[in-house]
Amino acid sequence: DTAVSQTPKYLVTQMGNDKSIKCEQNLGHDTMYWYKQDSKKFLKIMFSYNNKELIINETVPNRFSPKSPDKAHLNLHINSLELGDSAVYFCASSQPYGHNTGELFFGEGSRLTVL
Amino acid sequence: SQQGEEDPQALSIQEGENATMNCSYKTSINNLQWYRQNSGRGLVHLILIRSNEREKHSGRLRVTLDTSKKSSSLLITASRAADTASYFCATVIYNQGGKLIFGQGTELSVKP
């Protein structure tokens, strides 16, 4: 039974299109994250939600919009895709959150290729 | 520049040897964590060490933390081909609300 699952695993699309990635966790965690991993494997935090409330919003273009319908789900919608958006996007969850943030549980990643 | 920087960027060893990876960071932390990422997969948590701890063990893993030098090391003893992966350190920065910042990773290759 997968703890953090994200779909789709692969997306290939044209510049200018809009795409969404969905994430669900069944761990009962309150906090969920989106990370972006570039071609050099550098992982950068994008967003974090705690109990459906946005708590971290790094300097990410407005074209990226996260949505958390409930604490088990965190989706990422990307408008007007650009070549530089090509990356692997990881969803993660954790408990607890805050200055004692513990282990993050990651999904398997969604590889986005923008042509 | 990044909060966490790892050294070396790549490491190639023979099965049975020990592998040591180092991580340096810039600001005060609450805890430091190590993760493994197999090719094409998500990251998997290995071990967490708190800022008031100096050393921690888990199976063949040994992690040290030196807060005065702002550095940590991960030692994998008696490595196996299955240990081939990228290893990342990540820090929870003091007073930044729980944000986990990752280093650039060390690519470990263990040859059979």
The largest pleated sheet of chain A is described as: 7 strands, mixed
Q: In angstroms, what is the radius of gyration of chain B?
A: 13 Å
Terminal-residue CA separation of chain A = 34 Å
Distance between the termini of chain B: 36 Å
Shape type of chain A: globular
H/E element order of chain A? EEEEEEEEEEE
The tally of beta strands of chain B, per DSSP, is: 11
H/E element sequence of chain B: EEEEEEEEEEE
Proportion of strand residues of chain A: over 45%
| Class from helix and strand fractions of chain B | mainly beta
What does this structure look like?
The complex is a heterodimer of chains A (115) and B (112). By secondary structure, chain A is mainly β. Helix content of chain A is 0%, strand content 56%. Chain A contains no helices and eleven strands. In chain A, β7 and β8 (73-78) form a beta hairpin. With 112 residues, chain B is mostly beta strands. Chain B has no helices and eleven strands. Chain B has strands spanning 4-7, 10-14, 19-25, 29-37, 43-50, 55-58, 61-66, 71-76, 85-93, 100-102, 106-111. In chain B, the strands form two sheets. In chain B, strands 2, 4, 5, 9, 10 and 11 form a six-stranded mixed sheet that branches. Chain B has a five-stranded antiparallel sheet with strand order 1-3-8-7-6, with no helix packed on it. The mean pLDDT of chain B is 92. Chains A and B meet through β4, β5, β9 and β10 of A and β4, β5, β9 and β10 of B.
